[in-house]
Amino acid sequence: MAGKLYRFLFLKGEPMIWLAGSGLGICLLMIGGLIVLVGAKGLDIFWPRELVRIRTVDGKAVLGEILGREKASGKEGSSKDAGDRIRAKIGNRDLNGLDYRWIDESAIVSRDVPPDALLLERQEYGNFHGFLKEIRQDGKVVAPGPAGAVAALREIQARVRPAFVRLGETEKRDVGRINSRLEKERLELRNREKESGPSADAFRAESARRSAGLKARYEELRGRLETERATLLAHRVVVTDAAGKEKEFPVADVVRIVAPNVLSVPGKLGVYLSRLWEFVSGDPRESNTEGGIFPAIFGTVLMVILMSMVAVPFGVVTALYLREYAAQGKLVGLVRIAVNNLAGVPSIVFGIFGLGFFVYGIGGRIDQLLFSTALPTPTFGTGGILWCALTLALLTVPVVVVASEEALAAVPRGMREASLALGATKWQTTWRVVLPAAAPGILTGLILAMARGTGEVAPLMIVGVVKLAPTLPLDGVAPFLHLDRKIMHLGFHIYDVGFQSPNVEAALPMVYATTALLLGVVVALNLTAILIRNHLRKKLQTSTF
Question: CA 103, CA 53: separation in Å to the nearest integer?
Fold first, then answer.
């Protein structure tokens, strides 16, 4: 009996196959469920909900979005059912001091859905839930009463808000260029301050003239921008909350005006798509808990591209040497063991190494050789996207080496012998026969490297990723790609918003949305590499000997 059971379980192996298949199916279901959960919670935050006015027994009134309901916990030792309580996003952080509130349903006296309730998404202090009272310009009322003021508010906001955004972009671009040129003049003058003679005096005079011209342009530009800003900020809106408290703020700070209680389904869909587009294309605001995350998307994608440009060549060259040129022996075996062990080293160790070797070592030397006039302010001797990419390249090179070596080993020996028999050299055979045949496997290593590099956070926190990067590493100022600048990263953004935000409840929806987007970026990058690999596999497919 025992022998039959042994043959059934281990010799035929069918139960083990079914067990392995069941385990794989369970894992896929768990991964799929996680993706669906994160996606649903992340995309749900952009849908506009009704604003419900709730009055409680203590005479207070709030206006907010009902987000959920749960069983309220009763007093300790009491057998009486405490009932349910609802979670409402009440907004008005500058008036209430908080965004969310739990309300016991037993304390609710009445609730209604006022049709004139407005949701104003603001540049600061989050959403405002309330009712429009009037619009003022230069202290004078230009649109009194809620009836006609809503249409006027929409018209003014549609005109003022884009102009205010363009003003900020102009200030960042033009003032940034002037400051960059002033800094360049200062460094050139400092570099030649020890020189003497007529040529040095002439250079100093010319540099002073150029600097004076730049400062005059700066003052003229600043004065013009301040005038335009004052004109835009003269339009102000006065609103009241559910309790009747008044609040006044500039119309230019209103990002979006929503009347959710009277919106149709197509109208709500339009608001949803508008919020979603802002999320993927806009800049963050309110400590990264609102607005968009485009700088983090851009920084993540650019860093992965730079990492791949470094990791793949080094990994493929190493694999070529180990497989095609090195004499197989104990030394090569030890190298392979070391490469495999590097793949298991914790990522934070690579971050510490990158900080010491790249940032303080190489970056410090570069500053001394090329940017000595800027010292003690470091240029490359501090964190930046270049060091992030190189640190992640070190982290992912072992993955590329192992995958590439396996791909090279899978190329039939007959293909090499046929090429050599036709008179090709060793290098020609490697370049024209072996590498094209192994390209799909090498791209598999690239896919694995990209998947790991995209989600890493720990080493990046040390070598160049920050909470908020004021400028992108790619812009219109020479040299256009600034490898010394710090960047934002989706993984670090999730960590920062989820664990470092002063307003955890307001940050939670952004955590889900950013996580869903990070999964989407990883899938998009991997899918692109997979499509390229499949195309090469079809194009370079040859018969084996």
Answer: 12
Element (H, E) at 330: helix 330-342
CA separation for the pair 297, 156 (Å, rounded): 32
Alpha-carbon distances of 29 from 25, 311, 369, 520, rounded to whole Å: 6, 33, 56, 18
What are the phi and psi torsion angles at 543 (to 5°)? Answer: -80, 145
Q: Residue ranges of the domains in the chain?
A: 136-264, 294-539
**86-to-79, 100, 108, 291, 510 alpha-carbon distances in Å:** 21, 10, 10, 26, 21
More confidently predicted of 128 and 372: 128
Could you read off the pLDDT of 122-133 as tens digits, one per residue? 988 888 999 998
pTM of this prediction?
0.84
The answer to whether the Cα torsion of 479, 363, 384, 520 is positive or negative is: positive
Q: What is the CATH number of domain 294-539?
A: 1.10.3720.10
pLDDT in tens, 443-493: 888 888 888 888 888 888 889 888 888 788 887 777 788 888 888 988 888
* Of residues 342, 341, 322, the one with CA closest to residue 333: 322
CA separation for the pair 143, 149 (Å, rounded): 5
